[in-house]
Amino acid sequence: MPNPRIATVIGTGTIGRSWALVFARAGCETRLYDASAPQADRAKDWLLKNVTLAVQERLMTSEEGMVVEQCVVVCRDLGSALRGAEYVQESGPENLEAKQRMFAELDRLAEREAILATSTSTLDISAIAGGCPGGHRCFVAHPVNPPHVIPVVEVLAMPSAAEAQIKRACAFLSSVGQSPVLVNHYVVGFILNRLQAALVKEAINIVLSGVADVNAVDATVRDGVGLRWAVMGPFGVANTNADEGIRHYYRRYGSAYIALMNDLGPTPAFDEAMIEAVAAEVDQMTGSESTADQQHRRDQLILRIRQLKRETSRGV
Amino acid sequence: MPNPRIATVIGTGTIGRSWALVFARAGCETRLYDASAPQADRAKDWLLKNVTLAVQERLMTSEEGMVVEQCVVVCRDLGSALRGAEYVQESGPENLEAKQRMFAELDRLAEREAILATSTSTLDISAIAGGCPGGHRCFVAHPVNPPHVIPVVEVLAMPSAAEAQIKRACAFLSSVGQSPVLVNHYVVGFILNRLQAALVKEAINIVLSGVADVNAVDATVRDGVGLRWAVMGPFGVANTNADEGIRHYYRRYGSAYIALMNDLGPTPAFDEAMIEAVAAEVDQMTGSESTADQQHRRDQLILRIRQLKRETSRGV
């Protein structure tokens, strides 16, 4: 393994630049490559600005900030971006043919042992890299936007991948502070977007049926069940909902759950009428706070919650 | 309004005693009444122990702790428990006839202006208090267990309730640090349990179909989407997922959401095979940590997350 470890970011838009911060923050030499050179330069600027802000907001010491800044290099050609890299994260456009071409190129040019990962949220790794000689070292590593704030990464390997290879990819992601979760086989939406869609589906139904307004639904999550879910997932929560654990809880409330689950609403139409009905109430809820300020507030709070969780004995 | 304000807790089990802590912590004179006198005494003991712990863990100063301790009174008869009380929270067994009898009694004995609330998670307030002369001042105030940790309270009024009366009930709950959310009309599960059931339904399906294991699903929530939901609800999240806000986000991803929502799994059977399949993996995930320790860790972390949210400009 090279020293320091080298991570390469291919495609430096919103997701790619955030990945670069993850790698650099963890002390990797971080290479930025983009077919558009000015885009890569902008990504580096964003990263430096973000580090300055993190230091100001005491999420990073100024020493840590300086180390991060020194780790990041923009590369003008793909070959030099990949030289010596242990881990490569591709975050280009969500287009199968483009990703197939890129992975053929990455597989040809990268180090023989390099892990090659894509940020795709919709495509199967078999479709992207099934034709590559080095397909066994190719993965989906789907982050949540932005990965420097949210640690979870959904990892989907090729069916041909060896157990040790999958462990290596997950170990790398853990070593840079992310939380890899293994998706055993391809399904649309992987894990996170399926769970999210299930909740959003019912949230929209509650609003459209007049049971509650947008702010009431959001408050029920942010001041209610979401507080639990920042600490434990649905199974951990079920296990702590009865003193005797999840078996007791599911036995006792199983029939209530079944009745509720059977009563949930249908898939809503995402038409202009629905969108405007919901969005008008969102405008009321958010008031004069700009979207950028909302995003900033959300990300800063999440980073502090993660700090809090790290300070306790378990959790990320 | 009396000074200090008086809140009465009827039924002092797990939920009732936690309500008592909410009221006492907010400086209300807090009366505990239970048909079983030893139960009320145990609730007071629990409360005092909890305050000592909160002081030790610096969630409360010792001065605040002393104030709370002095606020709590066990009452041996219902009449004296209700005298002068502004707010009454009933948390007896989840049984319609028992609650009807209790509300008839409360309506007869309580102050004319007192707000009468029930912690029911399943019953309609019209069914419980529809026959009471003072039904207009009766409410469901459904907490999340335990209410001294999770602030959200689902409020359901009688159809005959005046707007001002609903506002008064919500204002009282806000004044003691809770987050009331209005349920406009009765549906099974109100808001929170419907949202939770939607997510749990898909979580179980993901495990049963072999897409991911219990720990992967839980990690996807606690290190992923749950971090967002502790800060913003699903609509606030959607609004920050695109720089241009929720309209743009829903227009762009509407068809992807529809495809995902249509692909979600069916209601699982809560039979022993399912329960054991899930529970065995939960055992692995939680390892040697006892359920009590898991509960304690969860609650302490949530209380600290709330502290963090209070320290930032917005949010509870």
Index terms:
globular, N-(1-d-carboxylethyl)-l-norvaline Dehydrogenase, domain 2, Rossmann fold, eight-stranded mixed β-sheet, 316 residues, homodimer, alpha/beta, 13 helices, 2 domains
Report on the structure:
The structure is a homodimer of 316-residue chains. Chain A contains 13 helices and eight strands. With 316 residues, chain A is of the alpha/beta class. Chain A folds into two domains: 6-182, NAD(P)-binding Rossmann-like Domain (Rossmann fold, 3-Layer(aba) Sandwich); 192-311, N-(1-d-carboxylethyl)-l-norvaline Dehydrogenase, domain 2 (Orthogonal Bundle). The first copy, chain A, has an eight-stranded mixed β-sheet with strand order 3-2-1-4-5-6-7-8, sandwiched between helices. In chain A, 50% of the residues are buried. The interface between A and B is large, with 113 and 113 residues.
